[in-house]
Fold this sequence. Notes:
Helix content is about 20%, strand content about 35%. The chain has about 210 residues and is an alpha+beta fold. A hairpin with a 2-residue loop joins strand 5 and strand 6 (about 105-115). The model has no long low-confidence stretch (mean pLDDT about 90).
Amino acid sequence: FADYYHLDYQSLLNSYFKGLNCDYNKIREKSIEISETLSFRSNLAIYSQEHSSILNISLEISKSEIFDGDSSKRTITILPTGNMEIPLKKEFLNGIFSAEKIYYKQTSFENISFDIANGEIINIFGNTNQNNIGKLNQLIYQLKNNWKIVIGLNENLSAFSGYSLYDLSVNGTLSIVNQDEKGHQLILISKSSKIVNKNSKIEIVRY
């Protein structure tokens, strides 16, 4: 599928094997630790000091999922993997999320910020051409606004590959994900963002 996504085959293959040979037990343990820490926290936000952006969030921790390569938990397992997903309560999703990488269908964008109010994108801006902004503006009216947060925990993946399903597991990334009416995902990935106390901006979990 490298040709389909206009990616370098050898580079994508290297990312595949590198990510595949991660420590899945460590991913599972880290996910459980994060879940336990966040279970007792409120007043949370996603904060990027680099972009001076903050997005207030409320998590549904009880519905979190761990993607650690264990195929017994689900019908389809895509490898390499290594992340955890937590649904977000859209009515509490307010502020700005700055993404270094954005994916939708076959298209990717870079360095765009999303202004979100009560789970709905109300403005898009950033260091990109107006044609890309226009494409994304057309998309937002098709979103279901069912958001989830994805925390990348695969220590063997450190750089973006250009393929969204790998990049969601890049270690240290924080993503928020939505989908349109046909199930196509809008994926916003940040390497600079952290989960913090929204008042103090002190980091709550390290990953």
